[in-house]
Amino acid sequence: MTKKPLFDKIAVIGLGLIGSSLCWRVKRDGLAKRIAGHARTAATRAKAMELGFVDSAHDTPAEAARDADLVVLCAPIGANAAIAEEIGPVLKRGAIVSDVGSVKVCVIRDVGPHLPDGVHLVPGHPVAGTEHSGPESGFPELFENRYCILTPPPGADAGAVERVAELWRRAGSNVELMDPHHHDRVLAVTSHLPHLISYTIVGTASDLETQLRREKQDVSDVVETREVIKYSAGGFRDFTRIAASDPVMWRDIFLNNREAVLELLGRFVEDITALQRAIRWGEGETLEAFFTRTRAIRRGVIEMGQAGSFNPAEPEKE
Ligand code: NAP
After folding, report:
1. Where residue 313 falls among pLDDT bands split at 50, 70, 90?
2. Any domain includes 257
3. Quick one: 31 exposed, middle or buried, by C-beta within 10 A (0-12, 13-18, 19+)?
4. CATH number of residue 234's parent domain
C-alpha cells in the first residue's frame, strides 16, 4: 500500500548532490505532492528541470519557498544567512525550515533570527555523500542506511521535529537527535579533520616535485607527480577521493566549525609527533600497539554497517 505524502509542497534551495538526491527520493517515493527548487545559477535550474527532479525551478529562493510546508536549505552553509533573510518574509505560518549542512550551531545562529513567529526551525545533517557535486550527481539511494542527525534548538516544536524525522526515515536514513554543539564536535572528528588531512597530504604530494627539483642536485632523489599518481594504490588514492570534495563547501565547513576543528587538530599534531618520535627512536612496540588499536575502529565501522555504499558507481564518503 503506498503511503500518503508527508508534505503538500517542499522547497529545496540548492540543487547539487544533496539537494538533488533528496528531490529524487521525495519524487520516487511520493513524499511530497510538489517540489519547488532554486539554485544560484540559471544553468543548474535548467538542468534540474531537464533531469526532472523538481516540478518547478525558480529564479529566487523566496519564489520557491512561497506556500511551502517544508523548506530544505541545501546550499553551502555560508549562503544560509542570506537565503534565510530572503525567504523569511514569504514563509507561511506553520512552515518548517530545515537544512542539510555539515555544521549545525551556525545554522541556528544564521537562519533562526530571520524566521518569523510560527515558523519552525529543525536543522538536520544527513551523514552521507560522495566527492561529486552538482545537479547531475544525485541519486535517490544516497541516504539509504545512513544516519541523519537532527539538532533542534531548545524549545523546538515536537510535531515539526517528528515530521522532518519521518521524511528522513522514509528517505532510508536512521534518524538521531543530538545537541548541535555535540554534533559539531563529533563531526569534527569523523569528517572535518579527515578532510583537512586529505587536503594536506594531496597538497604536500603535489608540491613535492617542484620543491625537490629546487633543492636537490641529484635528479634521482626527485619524486615526480607522475609517479605519485601511478603508484597511488598504495594508500594515496583514498586521500585523493576525499580531497576532490567541493572547495566552497569545505571552506564554509572549516570557517564555521573553527573551535572544534582547531581543538582536534591540536590533539592530532600531538599524536602524530608521538608517532614521529617512535619512528625516529625505532620503537616498534609503540607503533604496533597504536596500529592494532586503530584496526579495531575499522571493525566497528563495518559492524555498524557504515563501510559500504548503495551506489556501486560512487564509493561512500562522509
Ligand atoms: P553541491 O553539489 O556543490 O551543490 C550546492 C548547490 O547549492 C548548487 O545547486 C548551487 O547552485 C547551490 N548554491 C550555492 N550557493 C547558493 C546560493 N547563494 N543560493 C542558492 N543556491 C546556492 O553541494 P552539496 O554537496 O549538495 O552540499 C550542499 C550542502 O550539503 C552543504 O551545506 C554541505 O555542508 C551539506 N552536505 C554535503 C555532503 C557531501 O558529502 N557533499 C554531505 C552531507 C551534507 P549552482 O549549481 O547554481 O551554483
Report:
1. very low
2. yes
3. buried
4. 1.10.3660.10
Q: How much distance in Å is there from the Cα of 267 to the middle of ligand 1?
A: 30
Q: C-alpha grid cell for residue 307?
A: 563501510
Residues 253 and 138 in one domain: no
Tell me the C-alpha distance between 159 and 180, whole Å.
19
Looking at ligand 1, which atom is closest to the CA of residue 15? Answer: 9
Read off the C-alpha cell for 188.
569534527
* Domain closes at, from 178, 207, 237: 178
Which pLDDT band holds residue 137 (cuts at 50, 70, 90)?
very high
Q: How remote is the CA of residue 232 from the centroid of ligand 1, in Å? A: 29
| Same domain, residue pair 247 and 194 | yes
**162 and 192 in a common domain:** no
| 246 Cβ closer than 6 Å to some ligand 1 atom | yes
User: How many domains does the chain fold into?
Assistant: 2
147, 172 in Cβ contact below 8 A? Answer: no
Residue whose CB lies within 8 A of the most ligand 1 atoms, among 20, 80, 102, for a mutation test:
102
Average pLDDT over residues 186-210: 92
Single-letter code of the amino acid located at 276: Q
Is 313 domain-assigned? no
Domain containing 52: what range? 8-178
Choice from 13, 100, 150 to test ligand 1 binding pocket (greatest atom count within 8 A of CB) = 100
50 and 129 housed in the same domain: yes
Centre of ligand 1 from the C-alpha of residue 248, in Å: 9
266-305 tens-digit pLDDT: 999 999 999 999 999 999 999 999 999 988 888 888 888 8
Mean predicted lDDT score pLDDT of the chain? 93
Q: Model confidence at 309, in pLDDT bands (50, 70, 90)?
A: low
Per-residue pLDDT, 149:
98
Nearest atom, ligand 1, residue 19 CA: 26
b/e burial code for range 56-89 (CB count within 10 A of at least 16 → b): bbbeebbbbbbebbbbbbbbbbbbbbebbebbbe
pTM of the shown model:
0.92
